[in-house]
Each structure stands twice: as structure tokens, then as C-alpha cells.
């Protein structure tokens, strides 16, 4: 196997040199004729795939474990969807939860220097949603804010919801409406797909009051 | 005066050296006791100001002439507000005008490289509005779009209106509402004040169809 191979420089059978690596085309041919089960078969995935397609599928397999959805922390927790909420409540106690479809997500001290994340939970329709505001420098010297909503649920469940983020000042209003991502995709996936409200520091200041930014968050169910 | 002074190196009266420049504190004292009329007195400004405040006021005086509002052109036309529309119709014939409070501003080929401006006119409530979409690189390697609406009218008149810009795709919607600027302030003032909808190239692609971006523009009158 891969681990043993690294410790060998001679063939254990014929004592011939094993350097350079020599492809075993015959065995590759056999392998490409065989379908392998996904490594998450034990948690429910029934797919079988060619060895060339396995890694790509396993990276997004819906039966893979859920990672801790908290952005900006180095938490390496993994577990089932059912265990995510209790993990958050025990390991990330500082996250506030608000009840209701229509709440205000208050991000305090948006002028804090460097990359900062603001996180809170919203609970409605029998589900928990994670609200995230991220400040980061995508290109040097130019800080931007990224706001998005993720469902603590599967990708399929997320399709049933819509969210709206609204910033409003005395004379301006900025609104973003979209479907939430599932926490099975991470915040960084939502950001890199532009599936979020993006705004500059100058726009943030237009809406902030004393360095605090209130974002109106409304969650609704999609019409079937 | 300033022009003559530059041609003199000796005092025309006593032939003494005029270098270095010597402040005439006595005359400065006299000047600061006198109020001067604004240089736009002949077009209606009745303000009189201390010489130290004159340049600042004259840069924003509401009686100063209007410049050509077209962004990205090197047109150096100046004239009265009443003459702006006929200037645009004669000198910038390629600008389309649409009638109505609710129109679609279609920006074609948003993938064109470099800094690009899209401009059109919207006519409603007996006024003309200029719709501008600007693509530019505020920070290196990071292009952004800036969309705004300006009234062909005074700053005072602009306060009576609101505009809404809306981008919508199959699953996303981005909306911006604000009061239009007057063309007496330029597009670059609106952009530097963040009085505009700002979005990244990635967001533009989310809403664009085949490289063309449709922006719904709705203009309304403010409730008194």
C-alpha cells in the first residue's frame, strides 16, 4: 500500500530497484474496470465509483461528516448533522440565538482592524440558521464585508428557504435576497460563489451608527 | 496682480529685489476686514465672503455653471442648467432616452476590459435623469461596478426624488435605494461618497445574461 511503498527502495520479491516509480499499467486497467464504494458507505452513501472519480465525489458527498460551521475559529470538530447544534451550544457558548423570522443582527465595532467575523444564530420554522458577517481583505488595502445566512441542515432542506438582508439608513437602503447555503458547504464557499451580500467599508459607514451595524434579517419559506 | 507679479523680479517703484516673496501683512489685514462678492454674483449669488473662504464656496456655489455630466468623456462644455439637455442631445447623440418611471437599463458587454462607462437617460415626472454604470479598478486587480442616478436639475430638486436599482437573477436579488444626486455634483462625487450601488465582478456575473446586465430602475417622488 501507499504507506509501505514509501519505506521500500528495493522490490521485496526480486530485490530489483523500485526507483523511479514504475506505473503498473496492468493493475491500473483492472482497477479502472472495478467500481469502488464511496468511503461514506457506512453512513449511508450507496454510490460506487471508478477510482479516478472517488476523491472528487467524497469531498462533496452528502453523507460525509459535518464540520464545525463557526467561521474564523480553528475548531476541528466533525460529526453528524444532529450533533452540530449541541456542539455549538457546548463549545461555542458565546454565540447568541434570537427567535423569530425577522430579527436584527447587530455587528458591534465594525471598525476593529484586520479580519473579523461576527456570528449569531436565528431560530425559526423549526430550524436554526447561522448569520455570518465577515470582514476581510480580498485585495490589498481594500477591506470588504460579506454577509450571508447558512442553514444548520442539508443542502436539500436549504432550498426550501429564502433570506433577506437589509441595511438601511436615513436616506439609503441596500437589500440582498437569496437562498441560504447549507452548513455542509462552508461560509468560504458561499463567499467565493458570491452567494452573499458584499459591501465596502465606505458603504458600511453609511449605515453604521456609532461603529455598530444593524442588519435586518428576514427568513421565509419558498413557495412550492 | 498675480499674473504681473510672476514677470517681475524687481520692485517697479524702488527697484529693490522682490525675491523671496514677502507677505504684505498690512494689506492682508485690510483684505480680511473686507467682504468680497462671490465670483458668480452676476448669475445670481448674493453671498459676500472673506477672501479665505471664497475658493471653497465658489467650488460648490449653486450659481456656478453646470459642466457636461457625461462620465468618461473629455467634454469640457459648461453652461446653464437649461442648456444641459440640448447640449447632450447635440454633442452626445449616442445616449438613449427611455420614458417612464420604471425602465430597464441594459448594460451590454460588461466583460469589456478596463474602465468602461454605460450611460442612458430616463425621462419621467417632467424631469430627465441620467443613469450611469461605471466599471473601474479602485484597488489594483480588483474591478468594481458603481451604479447611480443623477437628476438633470438642482440639488434642491433632487431631494424630491428617490430611485431604486434592482439586479435580479433566478435565485438572487440585490436592491439599492437612495436619493439621486444633482448633475451639479458629478458622478465621481456620488461614487466617492458611496452614494451608489457598488458590486464586484463576481456579483455582476451572477446577474448578467450572456455578458449583458439588466438593471431595473424605478424613480419615485418622495412623500412630503
UniProtKB/TrEMBL annotation, chains A, B:
Pathway: Protein modification; protein ubiquitination. It is an enzyme of class 2 (transferase). It is found in: Cytoplasm; Nucleus. GO terms for molecular function: ligase activity; ubiquitin conjugating enzyme binding; ubiquitin protein ligase activity; zinc ion binding. InterPro entries: 7-in-absentia-prot_TRAF-dom, SINA-like_animal, TRAF-like, Znf_RING/FYVE/PHD, Znf_SIAH. E3 ubiquitin-protein ligase that mediates ubiquitination and subsequent proteasomal degradation of target proteins. E3 ubiquitin ligases accept ubiquitin from an E2 ubiquitin-conjugating enzyme in the form of a thioester and then directly transfers the ubiquitin to targeted substrates. The SBD domain (substrate-binding domain) mediates the interaction with substrate proteins. It is related to the TRAF family. The RING-type zinc finger domain is essential for ubiquitin ligase activity. This is E3 ubiquitin-protein ligase. It comes from Drymodes brunneopygia.
Amino acid at each position: 500500500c501507499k504507506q509501505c511503498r514509501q519505506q521500500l527502495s528495493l522490490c521485496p520479491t526480486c530485490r530489483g530497484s523500485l526507483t523511479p516509480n514504475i506505473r503498473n499499467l496492468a493493475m491500473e486497467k483492472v482497477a479502472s474496470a472495478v467500481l469502488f464504494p464511496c468511503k461514506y458507505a457506512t453512513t449511508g452513501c450507496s454510490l460506487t465509483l471508478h477510482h479516478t472519480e472517488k476523491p472528487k465525489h467524497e469531498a462533496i458527498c452528502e453523507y460525509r461528516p459535518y464540520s464545525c460551521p463557526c467561521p474564523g475559529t480553528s475548531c476541528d470538530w466533525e460529526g453528524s448533522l444532529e450533533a452540530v447544534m449541541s456542539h455549538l451550544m457546548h463549545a461555542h457558548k458565546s454565540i447568541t440565538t434570537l427567535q423569530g423570522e425577522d430579527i436584527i443582527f447587530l455587528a458591534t465595532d465594525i471598525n476593529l482592524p484586520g479580519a473579523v467575523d461576527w456570528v449569531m444564530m436565528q431560530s425559526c420554522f423549526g430550524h436554526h440558521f447561522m448569520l455570518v458577517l465577515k470582514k476581510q481583505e480580498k485585495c490589498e488595502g481594500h477591506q470588504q464585508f460579506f454577509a450571508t445566512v447558512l442553514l444548520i441542515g442539508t443542502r436539500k432542506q436549504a432550498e426550501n428557504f429564502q433570506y433577506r438582508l437589509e441595511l438601511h439608513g436615513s436616506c439609503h437602503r441596500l437589500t440582498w435576497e437569496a437562498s441560504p447555503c447549507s452548513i455542509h458547504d462552508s461560509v468560504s464557499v458561499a463567499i467565493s460563489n458570491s452567494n452573499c451580500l458584499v459591501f465596502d467599508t465606505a458603504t458600511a459607514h453609511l449605515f453604521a451608527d456609532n461603529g455598530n451595524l444593524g442588519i435586518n434579517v428576514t427568513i421565509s419559506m419558498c413557495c412550492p
